[in-house]
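Follow-up to my post from last week.
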Amino acid sequence: MTDLRNDFVGIKSPNPFWLASAPPTDKEYNVVRAFKAGWGGVVWKTLGEDPPIVNVNGPRYGAIYGADRRLLGFNNIELITDRPLDVNLREIKQVKQDWPDRAVVVSLMVPCEEGAWKKILPLVEDTGADGIELNFGCPHGMSERGMGAAVGQVPEYVEMVARWCKQNTRMPVIVKLTPNITDVRNPARAAKQGGADAVSLINTINSIVGVDLDTMAPNPATDGKGTHGGYCGPAVKPIALSMVSEIARDPATAGFPISGIGGISDWRDAAEFMALGAGNVQVCTAAMAYGFRIVEDMVEGLKTWMEEKGHARLDDFVGKAVPNMTDWQYLNLNYVVKARIDQDDCIKCGRCYIACEDTSHQAITATKDGQRHFEVIDEECVGCNLCVSVCPVENCITMERLTDGVDPRTGQPIEREYANWTTHPNNPNRVAAE
Amino acid sequence: MGMSDAKRDVAAGRLPSHQVQENFADLHPPLDRHGATVEADRCYFCHDAPCVRACPTSIDIPMFIRQISTGNPHGAAETILKQNIMGGMCARVCPTETLCEEVCVREVAEGKPVKIGHLQRYATDALFADGKQVFVRAAESGKRVAVVGGGPAGLSCGHRLAVLGHSVTVYDARKKLGGLNEYGIAAYKTVEDFAQREVAFILSLGGIEVVTGRRLGADLSLAQLRADYDAVFLGAGLGAVNGLGLEGEDLDGVVDAVDYIAELRQAKDLSVLPVGREVVVIGGGMTAIDIAVQSKLLGAQDVTIVYRRGKAQMKASGFEQDLAQTKGVKIVHFAKPARLIGEGGAVRGIEFERTRLGAGDRLEGTGENFTLSADVVFKAIGQTFVPDGLDGGVRLEGGRIAVDGEGRTSVPGIWAGGDCVAGGQDLTVAAVEDGKNAAHSIDRALRGAGA
Ligand SMILES: Cc1cc2nc3c(=O)[nH]c(=O)nc-3n(C[C@H](O)[C@H](O)[C@H](O)COP(=O)(O)OP(=O)(O)OC[C@H]3O[C@@H](n4cnc5c(N)ncnc54)[C@H](O)[C@@H]3O)c2cc1C
Ligand SMILES: Cc1cc2nc3c(=O)[nH]c(=O)nc-3n(C[C@H](O)[C@H](O)[C@H](O)COP(=O)(O)O)c2cc1C
Ligand code: SF4
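User reply:
Got it. Predicted complex:
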């Protein structure tokens, strides 16, 4: 039996799919619908001090589309919850009572003063919520008021607030990190240092989705003016994955629990985040784009894949890709590949040719014996994968490893032993090979 | 057979007028912006794209599709019109399934080509809707060129010459310009008077004078044109229709398809056109398909195309044949007309002999005959060139004007192109290319001479 049950810093949920703190988790009504649909948990839309903030009454969202208007990237200038604190607390308590098997975590953002945190923590504790998430990520609006990303960008503050929270509540503390920072490992280390139980990442990325060239206003605009918003959705997944992996690999935070967030739209995305070290995942944009039912496929898809791979529990694959993340300097420089174009699959569009010819290594033919014919010239191919990246036919171009003889490009014999930059003769700082 | 029992039935208004209008609506409704964006996204922007090679006018198809996808339809239209001034009409009438779309890598790979024709229409429609002129004439060269025939070949030649700075006079025997765009193409391919809108766009460039109602060989002489102009381009198309070579071709109800189509295209109200109940069409090309389909759309009950060879030998493309069949036209292969059956001076039926391909693929009769009753028999077995007014000086080849690769005839100073020249494809797009090609040749000759 494949077991999808998730235990994240002691918070239990029937599956690893949580809804991230955002509009889908802003009210009891939405959260109940989500639980009915099958979501394992929620991080309640960020609570703040009363009086509640106000949102703009103009558009909050902007989007980047594919040709068929598939939502690829999403941007928002929404602030934290705009509902009174007591209303949210009452609803949280009700939901937790009604859905005891689901995870209910409460996201918080109050001013960077210990008193403010001391005041709100007992109120949250009283709801019976399973934990708190500190929103140090919100990149717009709240950061202008010294909260959100303004805290998340200063590791000392992250550590300090995490410590206050740990000292003032029994609940597990998750620190949600902002990606709007040079090195995400610093706030992650600070969160751990401050005693937090976990980090979650990423929050949204500073962004402007576009400029209306008629009105010269950024998009979205309120009365002709715009402000940078937070970017999320499928477009941010690669950035989020990398940040998750950095924290997972960092000796200072290795093994520190991570809740993965950022562009997760399906079970495969989720599995990838978990393979890179996330103990569970959170989803926002995909739910906002398609509704809560997508969790059905997430649950089924993950289960089917785990069965196929023989993973009985989530822990069987969490972090399994982390050891394969390394630094560039440790990549095997003796691994030599050449592109191979399957002539049966080739539809002769010539895109590989023009890409390699114009912008790379002139390693593909356009004609052979006067005929339109695309073939790799091994003497020139550096194995860069550009042709694969631009080929419209899946698996038509593949990379084949050379294991014997000589690399026709360099004239150097193919070595089977691993050797990296640290010992390479061209490296002025090389160390002697052992 | 019983054809003498029933009355010959040719009548107007077989269908209510709104039904006829609906039947003759746009064959392919135009793409909207979203549809165009999605379709444009399917284009791979191929290197040295096969579609460009397959287009007789060499439109840079990947480039114009990319311009559509970047939200630049005017730029796309300019890319198209630069190579093919009738890109709008061609988008509607080209048999793309045997031209650009046939070699689209996505046709080869998946049997689903990028809809190049529809995208081309989207771009050119956008430009026409905004009424923008994209061409600028070069400085006046002081040279004057006469163009005989204002069809695709003549207009394309005249337009390019005007762009290059020459002064052009287009003479046409008919009242309106456009040639078969105006008088021949199936009505549902070019709705809303597109042919005339396109002519207006072409003429709006300036530098092109138009003289209609003048026919070479009647009101115009080649000698005079040569005397009055620095060069002459002949684009008179095909003036006559092939006959069946049977007795009774002058019976009432035995009709040249192209004449009837011309009448149809000019009719203000299609529901007043007389249509036969039982219609037989003889031929296997685009004209046969067009007359059959349009007869059906006007309300004919039974329409049968009879072609003497097989499906594969039909000049009409597979798409056209399918179109006819989905409209309810029956296609009979391997039968040739043997005898027209008349009664009281009007046709009542036609007898066919079945054929087969014999040795060396030679067509031969089988001796087995059958008869179809008919209220109307349409002849659509090809057109011929009428060499009126050529004064015997211009050399012909297989009955059409002989030209070299640049469109030069045997007489210096006279160029020709389109359907009237030998070795052509008898397509709108090919006529446009001929005209453009000849214009550049004329330009070189005139500038060379002037230098
Ligand atoms: C019924 C029918 C349907 C067709 N459908 C298609 C189609 O769907 N797609 C496609 O690509 N092609 C189609 N074609 C073919 C296409 O229309 C022709 O290839 C194209 O129009 C040829 O252009 P042109 O300029 O050479 O000749 P034309 O279009 O025939 O133009 C010749 C012009 O010269 C004028 N003219 C003729 N004689 C004289 C004279 N002596 N003096 C002065 N003026 C003269 C005529 O009035 C006419 O305006 C079709 C043809 C027919 C008959
Ligand atoms: C409209 C909107 C509002 C959001 N509000 C919050 C918030 O109040 N608190 C918070 O921690 N994150 C907030 N987020 C960020 C999301 O929780 C999440 O971190 C981010 O969208 C990345 O995940 P995704 O790509 O699945 O959307 C918000 C996101 C969106 C789109
Ligand atoms: S792998 Fe890179 S260098 Fe080799 S053929 Fe492909 S694009 Fe060219």
